[in-house]
Structures are given as structure tokens and as C-alpha cells.
TrEMBL record:
Residues 1-50, 336-386 are annotated as: Disordered. This is MBL fold metallo-hydrolase. InterPro entries: Metallo-B-lactamas, RibonucZ/Hydroxyglut_hydro. Residues 102-303 form the Metallo-beta-lactamase domain. Gene3D superfamilies: Ribonuclease Z/Hydroxyacylglutathione hydrolase-like. Residues 362-379 have a biased composition (Low complexity). It holds the Pfam family Lactamase_B_2.
Length: 386
């Protein structure tokens, strides 16, 4: 603990890190925090939504958690993908992307709860499908923003024992340093800045969300979506975001994408600007693809692991199936731990309708242990450097 601030809260940016943040085009000096891109609203807040109504909705338990163990899969990562691209959904927003001989891990969360406390807060529906050590070599870890369900202290500390390099938005490095990572282990990026790692180009791109881990949210760490380009393939991870018109610009500048990983869970009319519905997720995929429904595959993320919103836990998958079919979008909805090649046949069997198949034990699948990882020296580019 630094003073009275628990380690799980991380640290506020100071010194040159704060000065760089304040130079960002995304930073509003008058407000003292980062601002969102212009918003193209697709749904207004629900009329009459009060704090009391929101609290009642969040306290309701009807359909919010599975009533039986989920059918986890144990991915086979022993051989490289024949096409050069494979995605493995490990629950919530955590995805392992194998791209052109490299391995990128997005928003890794192996902790039991997405909370600053080990004894309270949203608890996982299912254990992680495999331990961190089962991932094998990693070339990069990418963090979209500093919320607890995307930046997990025990997972970061486990990954810190390897030499893998982190790509994070501006300000997030303050948390990483407090948790034991030296500055040469991570690169902080503003929107449209890039870092080169193992022959991949990782670029932070705009998103519409917010940040913060403590009781006082100063909005001094940035949130981002991410474009990753290899020699032969390109992929996109949305992080957390509300829908906005800038996704078309991201697609035009950094696409076309062979696969998109799009947040489609934890939405609500109580907060329509910061999380997308499945229908908005499909629209985002189309925007990123220049309106070409047949281009690339969509992996819905940010659902099926934590109870973070009033909707039933199965609802994002059901709505995604319908929305993708209506838009003729290729969608993959694997069970946690499921892998797929975006260019091949995609997993769409509705496993969530009949949970109850044996799940891996927590001791075997959920342990956060040391990964075998490596990291090259990064090279950065962008408006303000790294």
C-alpha cells in the first residue's frame, strides 16, 4: 500500500507521464481529463431511468448467471495455425491471437473477481479455460483500459515474471510500474500511435468509454481499441466502447481486418454511451469493413464470464446470432477456450442454451502461473512518441 491507497487501485500518473498526457489531443485541460470522440448516438438513455431504478435492475438475479457449469474447451496451442491466423476466446475480453507466427494476448484476466477486493465484486461464471503457463510464448500483451475486468492485478503480476512486452494506452503505465514492471517492459500510446513488436504493428485507435480504478476518477488514463497488423493478416480488438461513427475511419486507415473482436455485453439503457449492444457490434464490424458484410469474421467478446449488467447472461449471444444473420456477417461464438481460424468454418453452435457439460477444475484451469514469454526491443512511432 502506498499511503492508504491499496495496490489494486494502481497509481495516478505524475511527472513527465502526466505532462505527456496533458499534451495529448485527447486531453481536455479545462476538465482535467481525457475526452471521448464525437458521439453518433444510436439509442437514447431509457426514459425515467433513475439511480434507484438502476440499482433495482442491478440487484435483480433473474437469468443473470448460468445455473450449471459452462462447457469449457481446452485449446490446443501446440501447433501453429495453418492459415497463419487463429483466435482463442478465453472468456470476457481476453483473447489470444496467433497472427503470422506471433502471439498477442488481449486484456488478460485470470483473477477470480473483477474488483479491487478479493472478497467482493463480480465473480467469474467459469474458471479460465487454461492456466497462463499453458499459453506458451507470448510476443505482446495488449491492454485496452484500466478497468478491473480488463486490467487484472494478479494476472499482471504473473505476467511480470516473464519478459513479455506490454502495449497500453497513455497513463496505464503508472499502474504497471506500481505493480513491479520497469518502464522498459511497456509502451504507452495515444490514439493513432504505434509500436513495433516482433514484426507486428500495434496501433491504439479511438474508442468511446471512460477509465478509473479508485473512488475518485480523474480520467487521466486513456482508453483505446487496437489494430494489430502482421505481414499477412490484420485484426481489431474493440476494448470497451460505445458505438460512434469513427469506426469507419479506423477501418479505412488500419484495415481491412481479417477478424474483429467486438464488445457486445454489459450494455444497458442506463449507460448507452459506453457499451455496445450486439446490434451495434454488428454495425461496428460493418463500419470497420467498409460495409462489406462478407469481409472478415466477428468474435463477440465481453460477455459470458462476469455479471456486469441487468441483461440475462445468454442474451448477447442470442441477439448476436440474429443480428449477424440479418446483416450477413460471419460470426464466431465459441465456448470459452474455443479456437477458430477466421477464414474457415466458424463455431456457432448455441452451447450457451444447454450449459452443464463438465468444466475444467478451478485448480487446473484457473491458476495464474508464470508464462513462458519473450519480448523484443520496441520501436515506436506517432505524434508524441512513446
Amino acid at each position: 500500500m502506498t499511503g492508504m491507497r491499496p495496490a489494486s487501485f494502481g497509481a495516478e500518473p505524475t511527472g513527465e507521464r502526466l505532462a505527456r498526457i496533458q499534451r495529448s489531443p485527447q486531453y481536455d485541460m479545462s476538465a482535467g481529463g481525457f475526452r471521448n470522440p464525437p458521439h453518433a448516438a444510436t439509442r437514447p438513455p431509457g426514459e425515467g431511468n433513475s439511480r434507484l431504478e438502476m440499482l433495482r435492475a442491478l440487484l435483480s438475479r433473474k437469468g443473470r448467471r448460468p445455473d450449471a457449469p459452462l462447457p469449457l474447451q481446452r485449446p490446443d496451442l501446440s501447433t501453429p495455425p495453418a492459415s497463419g491466423l487463429r483466435l482463442t476466446w478465453l472468456g470476457h475480453a481476453t483473447v489470444l491471437a496467433e497472427i503470422d507466427g506471433r502471439r498477442v494476448l488481449f486484456d488478460p484476466v485470470w483473477g477470480e473477481r473483477c474488483s479491487p477486493f478479493a472478497f467482493a465484486g463480480p465473480r467469474r461464471f467459469h474458471p479460465a479455460p487454461l492456466p497462463l503457463s499453458g499459453l506458451g510464448r507470448l510476443d505482446a500483451v495488449v491492454i485496452s483500459h484500466d478497468h478491473y475486468d480488463h486490467l487484472d492485478l494478479p494476472t499482471i503480476r504473473a505476467l511480470a515474471r516473464s519478459d513479455v512486452h506490454f502495449a497500453v494506452p497513455l497513463g496505464v503505465g503508472a499502474h504497471l510500474e506500481r505493480w513491479g514492471l520497469s518502464p522498459d517492459r511497456f509502451t504507452e500510446l495515444d490514439w493513432h500511435e504505434s509500436v513495433q513488436l516482433s514484426g507486428l504493428t500495434l496501433t491504439a485507435t479511438p474508442a468511446r468509454h471512460f477509465c478509473g480504478r479508485g473512488l475518485r476518477n480523474k480520467q487521466r488514463t486513456l482508453w483505446a481499441s487496437w489494430a494489430v497488423a502482421g505481414p499477412d493478416h490484420r485484426i481489431f480488438h474493440s476494448g470497451d466502447t460505445g458505438y460512434f461513427s469513427g469506426f469507419a475511419d479506423t477501418g479505412a486507415q488500419y484495415g481491412p481486418f481479417d477478424a474483429t473482436m467486438i464488445q457486445v455485453g454489459a450494455y444497458s439503457d442506463f449507460w448507452p454511451d459506453i457499451h455496445m449492444t450486439p446490434e451495434e457490434g454488428v454495425r461496428t464490424h460493418l463500419d470497420l469493413s467498409g460495409g462489406a458484410a462478407s469481409r472478415g469474421a466477428l468474435l463477440p467478446i465481453h460477455w459470458g464470464t462476469f455479471n456486469l449488467a441487468p441483461h440475462p447472461w445468454r442474451e448477447p449471444a442470442e441477439r448476436m446470432l440474429t443480428a449477424a444473420a440479418e446483416a450477413d456477417v460471419r460470426v464466431a461464438i465459441p465456448a470459452p477456450g474455443g479456437s477458430f481460424d477466421p477464414s474457415a468454418e466458424l463455431p456457432v453452435a448455441p452451447w450457451w442454451r444447454t450449459p452443464g457439460a463438465p468444466a475444467a477444475s478451478r485448480q487446473e484451469a484457473g491458476a495464474a502461473t508464470r508464462p513462458a514469454a519473450r519480448a523484443p526491443e520496441p520501436e515506436t512511432s506517432g505524434r508524441t512518441g512513446a
